[in-house]
Amino acid sequence: MSTLCENDRLELEEQDLSLFEEPEEYKVPTPEPTFHLFKRKEEDIDILSVGSHPLWAHVLWNASKCLVWYLDRHKELIRGKNILELGAGGALPSIISAVNGAKKVVITDYPDEELIENIKYNITTNLSSHENIEILGYIWGYNTDPLLNAISQSKDSHFDLIIMSDLIFNHSQHSALLKTCEKCLDKHGQILVFFTHHRPHLADRDMKFFEEAQKDNMFKVEKIVEEIMEPMFEKDSGSELVRSTVYGYKLTHLNNVNNVQIDGYKLEVTLSDRL
């Protein structure tokens, strides 16, 4: 009897719009929630993941770990800043953002009660103070007013940093993700996108996210991280090296960059360089 490997399931679930519906005869007991101990130099973080979920919130992704390591090395991106996490899952990057001195952290995931309650548990377990934390159910591409209102009632306030880990395998959601990012990001802010090509044969479709991000001069895209880890799912098909590699990209507003042509060379001068 043939079985589905994890990257096959990713493809099937992306195509299925009724993610939360299963035939009665197919239902099986939900696995128990699991804890993941994330070790860092300063302190360990206990992350509870739901037992199983069609939106993959039950997995602590390698990309999330690498993103946290990056944030720990670059605390200046967080300290005193407004942070938004999309598709948070266990919310590990958001927790680290709060620990590292963020002004406000808005944590979002699909508006499913189990997902939101799981995030709340992780926040109360790992943080002694929650005053700078807001947890919201949010569907990518929808009205961003609730997200922006969480940091200020002023329409001029936007997020300094938006963080995303292992979301771009949702190919049908690229436009929705970018729409939310464009509306929420401060003109001097940046987006961190960390991911792995879990389905190597669809790597080119993963990268379409960045092609779309650069259309119409929306964002400037820069690769900042490439790190090899253990594969998330050992029995999956495709190159193990590809499935083990985590990439990190930084996106910034292109309208803050002027291109200057001098003797055949193109220079990028940010507005802040002029001040």
TrEMBL record:
<comment type="similarity">
    <text>Belongs to the class I-like SAM-binding methyltransferase superfamily. EFM7 family.</text>
</comment>
<keyword id="KW-0808">Transferase</keyword>
<feature type="binding site">
    <location>
        <begin position="87"/>
        <end position="89"/>
    </location>
    <ligand>
        <name>S-adenosyl-L-methionine</name>
    </ligand>
</feature>
<dbReference type="Pfam" id="PF10294">
    <property type="entry name" value="Methyltransf_16"/>
</dbReference>
<dbReference type="GO" id="GO:0032259">
    <property type="term" value="P:methylation"/>
</dbReference>
<dbReference type="GO" id="GO:0005737">
    <property type="term" value="C:cytoplasm"/>
</dbReference>
<dbReference type="InterPro" id="IPR029063">
    <property type="entry name" value="SAM-dependent_MTases_sf"/>
</dbReference>
<dbReference type="GO" id="GO:0071885">
    <property type="term" value="F:N-terminal protein N-methyltransferase activity"/>
</dbReference>
<keyword id="KW-0489">Methyltransferase</keyword>
<feature type="binding site">
    <location>
        <position position="61"/>
    </location>
    <ligand>
        <name>S-adenosyl-L-methionine</name>
    </ligand>
</feature>
<comment type="function">
    <text>S-adenosyl-L-methionine-dependent protein methyltransferase that trimethylates the N-terminal glycine 'Gly-2' of elongation factor 1-alpha, before also catalyzing the mono- and dimethylation of 'Lys-3'.</text>
</comment>
<feature type="binding site">
    <location>
        <position position="109"/>
    </location>
    <ligand>
        <name>S-adenosyl-L-methionine</name>
    </ligand>
</feature>
<dbReference type="InterPro" id="IPR025784">
    <property type="entry name" value="EFM7"/>
</dbReference>
<protein>
    <recommendedName>
        <fullName>Protein N-terminal and lysine N-methyltransferase EFM7</fullName>
        <ecNumber>2.1.1.-</ecNumber>
    </recommendedName>
</protein>
<dbReference type="InterPro" id="IPR019410">
    <property type="entry name" value="Methyltransf_16"/>
</dbReference>
<dbReference type="GO" id="GO:0016279">
    <property type="term" value="F:protein-lysine N-methyltransferase activity"/>
</dbReference>
<keyword id="KW-0949">S-adenosyl-L-methionine</keyword>
<feature type="binding site">
    <location>
        <position position="140"/>
    </location>
    <ligand>
        <name>S-adenosyl-L-methionine</name>
    </ligand>
</feature>
<keyword id="KW-0963">Cytoplasm</keyword>
<feature type="binding site">
    <location>
        <position position="165"/>
    </location>
    <ligand>
        <name>S-adenosyl-L-methionine</name>
    </ligand>
</feature>
